[in-house]
Design brief:
- By secondary structure, the protein is mostly beta strands.
- The protein is built from 2 helices and 7 strands.
- A hairpin with a 6-residue loop joins strand 4 and strand 5.
- The N and C termini lie far apart (70 Å).
Length: 175
C-alpha cells in the first residue's frame, strides 16, 4: 500500500510537478458492499501551487455487477478522473457557518507533508457505480412469463400470454 504521497520533493519549489502511480488492493479501500475485481490503479500528478498542492489523477478499476435486466453477472471496467487542491491543515478552529463554493468541493487537507488519496479514491469509485447496471446497452432481459434470457434466444411465449397493464387498452383499440 503506497497511497501516501510524500511531498518533500515538491514542497520547496513552486511549480514542480510530481508523478505518482500505484495500485491499491480492493480490500484496503474498505468497501463492504462493492465487488471490486483485481487491484485499483491510481495515477496522480501533483503540482506545488505555492499555497496548496494541486492533484490531478486517474483511477482505473473493475466492478463485478449483476445486470438489472437479465440478472447475469458481468465485469464493468471503469475509469474516472479527479482534481483536488490540498491545503496544509494548520488550524483546528471550525468555522461556525459559511456557504460552500465550487472550489470548496475540490478542497482537502494534508498533514505531515504527505497526502493520503484514500478518501478521494473511495468517493470517485462510489460515484462511478452505475445506478442501473446493464451487461450491454441493448440487453433484452428476461421474459416476464417464462424467465428465458432473451439475449440467448427467443422464448416460446406468445405476446398475448404476457401480462401487460396496457393489455385491456390494447384490446379496446383493436375493437
Amino acid at each position: 500500500m503506497k497511497r501516501y504521497i510524500d511531498l518533500t520533493q515538491i514542497k520547496k519549489t513552486i511549480g514542480i510537478p510530481l508523478e505518482a502511480a500505484y495500485e491499491e488492493e480492493a480490500s484496503e479501500l474498505g468497501f463492504n458492499d462493492l465487488n471490486l475485481v483485481n487491484k485499483v490503479a491510481v495515477k496522480a500528478r501533483l503540482t506545488n501551487m505555492g499555497s496548496y498542492i494541486n492533484v490531478q489523477g486517474e483511477i482505473q478499476f473493475e466492478l463485478a455487477l449483476e445486470c438489472i435486466r437479465c440478472l447475469n453477472p458481468f465485469i464493468l471496467p471503469s475509469k474516472t478522473t479527479f482534481e483536488v487542491d490540498y491545503y496544509k491543515k494548520i488550524s483546528l478552529v471550525e468555522p461556525t457557518e459559511m456557504a460552500l463554493t465550487e472550489k470548496d468541493l475540490r478542497m482537502a487537507y494534508y498533514t505531515d507533508d504527505r497526502i493520503d488519496l484514500l478518501e478521494e479514491i473511495r468517493q470517485d469509485i462510489i460515484l462511478a457505480v452505475p445506478v442501473k447496471p446493464l451487461c450491454q446497452e441493448d440487453c433484452q432481459g428476461l421474459c416476464p412469463s417464462c424467465g428465458q434470457n432473451l439475449n440467448i434466444g427467443k422464448c416460446k411465449c406468445r405476446e398475448e400470454d404476457i401480462f401487460s397493464p396496457w393489455s385491456s387498452l390494447k384490446k379496446l383499440l383493436e375493437e
